[in-house]
Specification:
The chain has 225 residues and is mainly alpha-helical. 69% of the residues lie in helices and 0% in strands. Helix 4 (66-95) runs parallel beside helix 6 (132-154) and helix 5 (99-128) crosses helix 8. The protein is elongated, with a radius of gyration of 21 Å.
């Protein structure tokens, strides 16, 4: 598996002095906190200035606009998330000797991974609706995560009964991610559900395993009269 961390494409004007670097970090931390709190980009640079204890002039010295600052937050966050994903996959590989143990573990670990990061992920998804750069970078991050998990599942391809294991593993990820994201309200309001979080994870694991191990049934043709 490729574990290379994606390069952070920074649009910030990089500082050279220690005090300036500390000021930049406070800007980014303040913007990150406001993104989480507002569940999106609904904040001002004046608020970043106040929360981060930096002047407006300092912010504009590093970032041309609020949008560029948010892209910096997104880029840094995606690098950390990728590193966390790789660590999660290493743990899953050690735990999952076969599909019976691996698939429920993938669902459970992916669910908790998303839940722990839901506020900032949701904020980025809202930002992506009006910022093509964040939308593109977010799509790349999603595909990296999907490809890594599909690769892990395909290490057990002999246990997959579907006629096209790659397509089946890909479908498994998309459907599980969509169900978890919907439950958590990533990019939109959470839905009111009778099914609790623990049961959702359990049922997704059971259904995912059953799907991957199910043989394709040929359609029954009725005899013509």
């Amino acid at each position: 598996m490729t574990k290379k961390t994606p390069a952070k494409r920074s649009e910030a004007r990089e500082p050279k002095q220690g005090r300036s670097r500390a000021s930049l970090e406070r800007m980014v931390e303040a913007a990150t906190a406001l993104l989480r709190e507002r569940a999106g980009p609904d904040f001002t640079l004046n608020e970043v200035s106040s929360l981060g204890r930096v002047s407006i002039g300092s912010i504009y010295c590093r970032f041309e606009s609020k949008e560029v600052l948010i892209r910096e937050v997104h880029a840094r966050t995606m690098v950390r998330f990728h590193e966390d994903e790789m660590a999660m996959l290493d743990r899953l590989r050690k735990r999952g000797d076969d599909l019976d143990t691996l698939i429920p573990a993938i669902v459970s670990d992916l669910a908790e991974f998303l839940k722990a990061r839901a506020p900032i992920l949701s904020a980025f998804m809202v930002s992506a609706t009006s910022d093509a750069a964040i939308a593109a970078a977010g799509g790349q991050a999603y595909r990296r995560a999907k490809d890594a998990i599909v690769e892990l599942i395909l290490e057990h391809r002999r246990e997959i009964a579907r006629p096209d294991p790659e397509r089946a593993a890909d479908a498994f990820f998309h459907l599980v991610y969509a169900a978890l994201a919907r439950h958590l309200g990533l990019g939109h309001a959470p839905i009111a559900e009778e099914m609790g979080w623990a049961r959702l994870k359990e049922e997704l694991g059971v259904m995912g395993l059953a799907y991957l191990k199910a043989r394709e049934r040929k359609p029954v043709t009725k005899p013509q009269r």
